[in-house]
Amino acid sequence: MTRDVEQGPSPRPWDTKHLPQGDEKVTAVRTMFDTIAPRYDMVNRIMTFRLDVRWRRITVKRLGLPSGSLVLDLASGTGDLCVDLAASGLRPISVDLSFGMLAQDRSGAPRTQADILVLPLPNAAVDGVTCGFALRNLVDLDRFFLELARVVRHGGRIALLDVSTPTNPLLRLGNRLYFGRVVPLIGGLLSDRAAYRYLPKSVAYLPAPDRLVDSLKRAGFHDVEHRQLSGGLTQLITASRNAP
Description:
Strand order of the largest sheet: 3-2-1-4-5-7-6
Structural class: alpha/beta
Strand content: 15-25%
Number of helices: 9
Low-confidence stretches: 1-9
CATH superfamily: Vaccinia Virus protein VP39
Mean pLDDT: 92
Order of helices and strands: HHHEHEHEEHEHHHEE
CATH topology: Rossmann fold
Shape: globular
CATH class: Alpha Beta
CATH architecture: 3-Layer(aba) Sandwich
Helix content: 40-55%
């Protein structure tokens, strides 16, 4: 005689010892952000001590586009960057893979759910692109950069913001301890602990800065600049689309 063994809940696709790859990564990222969307902004403000607000404002400033320019905010989340873009006189469009995130968007910008590796736009359709804290969530950065080059008009601008690893050894140690141990605790209390264990680890997906810069140049961008912000806690890459 056999007896069924009661099974616990299946693990979330982002709650694994290994970092997911390929289609597994796409599913994990989409469902994870759907899950944490309702409290995403609050947790961000707390865990970054509101530095995320400053980083986004720097991103918009470094984008350097004139008032009235049409800007895609890719992996837009809850629309924070769209708010800053609009406040600077730009016309943002919010694009995200996660419907949960878009449902929390209160920016008032037009928004659409889409895979940002395959944008539903014609060539040279926009003046610029911003993307905040999403490069590490993509399965193919080279393909993403080519897609940016396709949809941004010649002479347009991009500004890509993401996490980074500080070069200073002491700051790097403190950053690893804080984001590796404290952030998951905060996330567990306020949202989903597994997600905030995954997010600090996901920096491992990012290539070195020089490789990011080279990839953008190969894709068709010039004046590519890489900056570290707040001692290397984050990085900002800006570039202009090559003329024909």
